[in-house]
Design brief:
By secondary structure, the chain is an alpha/beta fold. The chain has helices at residues 23-41, 46-53, 57-69, 133-148, 153-157, 192-197, 209-219, 283-292, 299-302, 311-333, 349-364, 385-399; strands at 73-75, 90-92, 98-104, 108-115, 120-127, 159-166, 204-208, 229-234, 238-244, 247-248, 263-268, 271-276, 340-345, 375-378. The protein has two domains: 1-221 and 383-411, ATPase, nucleotide binding domain (Nucleotidyltransferase, domain 5, 2-Layer Sandwich), CATH 3.30.420.40; 227-378, ATPase, nucleotide binding domain (Nucleotidyltransferase, domain 5, 2-Layer Sandwich), CATH 3.30.420. Helix content is 35%, strand content 19%. Helix 1 (23-41) packs across helix 3 (57-69), helix 7 packs across helix 12 and helix 10 crosses helix 11.
Length: 420
């Protein structure tokens, strides 16, 4: 593999045309359906589960009981005050499963440990001038034991995997991140998933970093409220993700939603020039402007939630970025009538709010005849989206609603991971 070309996570699957659903597959699908519903609604009684899934009360009750026995659901305090027996709500048990997420960025690495509801239990962070495989593996080797050392034996047995969120084709962007000529070429011949798997005690999944951020928005944020949405994440470089029919869609090669290459027409020196979105709407553009003005841009990455006052440089960056994003939205909506466009990034909440508001204002002024306007809104996760999205990947693989489970039987015949 060369820097993420294979062994990608495939989260939008089609069922085999000649296969039928077996009883185990139906049970597994219904269990995942109920877990996904619990994740979205937070607390539900057995009767509410039956009502919202269309299952019989008897079937819903049996599945909820089994999920509780498996340690994935827990009983909440009975709700009294109504006629008849008190209602007993259930919710996801935070101790039900754990997952690790690694974000390999162009300026930093993050490793997080999360529980079943997406709360971060432990984290490690490291910055660097530009990413290198050896330094990344050294970071994982040092940080991984520290993150898991305080887990009990039961918690350790419920680690589902490690999701790696990384930009694909890192070697293409050496000049933009300030790496010496040829320094990034080493990524061409590194199978980073296998290298990490050799030092990690749990299965490793690899996915594009922006698609991973999209997964975090869908799984832990507010994206689930939309059946289809387009997702932009502004890191050092912009990327994106696509959710269609309520599932993350990564495509045949794992690069679906690679929004950076979208061509944007710009007026330069009196003539129209096509530039890729990645060169018009990425944070590295702000970094370049600050450096050209003699200012230190390092706080952009050291403290992504508390940027210094970048004054007019920030204003100009927001305007340039918003215009490019508005045209990119128009191009995407012309292909798929997304219900929403969600914009997030490694930036302070106030900056993100200004950017999203300006994108919506510019989009309103574009020629949109023949199109259905989407809702343009801010993401709910923020700078941690890529690392949390990486950690979400094993949870999605094991617990998220997936029609393909109707057509296959788990190796151990169990509807959930082989937890003790």
């Amino acid at each position: 593999m060369t820097g993420g070309e294979t062994d990608i996570v495939e989260t939008r699957l089609s069922a085999p045309a000649a296969s039928g659903a077996n009883q185990t597959g139906v049970r597994l699908y219904n269990e995942r359906l109920i877990l996904s519903l619990m994740r979205r609604r937070r607390h539900l009684s057995k009767i509410e589960v039956a009502r919202q899934t269309g299952l019989s009360v008897q079937t819903a009750s049996a599945i909820v009981n089994q999920l509780q026995a498996d340690g994935l659901l827990k009983r909440e305090t009975p709700q009294r005050g109504r006629v008849g027996q008190p209602t007993v709500p259930f919710s996801l048990d935070p101790e039900g499963a754990f997952s690790l997420g690694l974000k390999i960025g162009r300026r930093s690495c993050d490793l997080v440990l999360i529980d079943f509801v997406g709360a971060t239990r432990q984290r490690a962070h490291e910055t660097f001038p530009y990413p290198q495989p050896a330094a990344t593996l050294d970071f994982v080797a040092r940080a991984l034991p520290a993150l898991t050392t305080e887990l009990t034996a039961r918690q350790r047995s419920r680690l589902t995997g490690l999701g790696v969120a990384t930009p694909f084709y890192l070697w293409n962007w050496g000049a933009e991140v300030g790496a010496p000529p040829g320094a990034m070429d080493v990524w061409r011949n590194v199978d980073i998933r296998n290298e990490i798997a050799s030092i990690c005690p749990v299965p490793v999944i690899l996915c594009n970093d922006a698609s991973s951020a999209c997964a975090a928005e869908f799984f832990f944020g507010e994206g689930w409220r939309h059946h289809d949405f387009l997702y932009f994440f502004l890191g050092s470089f912009i990327g994106g993700g696509v959710v269609i029919d309520g599932a993350l869609f990564t495509g045949r090669t794992g690069t679906a939603g690679a929004l950076g290459p979208i061509p944007i027409m710009r007026l330069e020196n009196g003539r129209l020039v096509a530039r890729q979105l990645i060169h018009c709407a990425s944070i590295y553009r702000l970094e370049e402007a600050l450096r050209a003005a003699g200012r230190d841009p390092s706080s952009i990455w050291r403290t992504p939630d508390a940027w210094d006052d970048f004054s007019t440089h920030l204003d100009a960056w927001i305007e340039e970025t918003a215009e490019a994003l508005a045209y990119a939205c128009l191009a995407a909506i012309s292909v798929i009538d997304f219900e929403a466009v969600i914009i997030d990034g490694a930036m302070p909440t106030a900056v993100r709010s200004r950017l999203v508001e300006r994108v919506a204002e510019i989009y309103e002024k574009l020629d949109r005849r023949g199109l259905i306007d989407p809702t343009i809104k801010a993401g709910a996760i923020g700078a941690d989206a890529r690392a949390l999205g990486g950690a979400a990947l094993p949870l999605i693989a094991n617990f998220a609603r997936d029609r393909e489970v109707l057509f296959k039987e788990p190796p151990n015949g169990s509807p959930s991971p082989n937890f003790p």
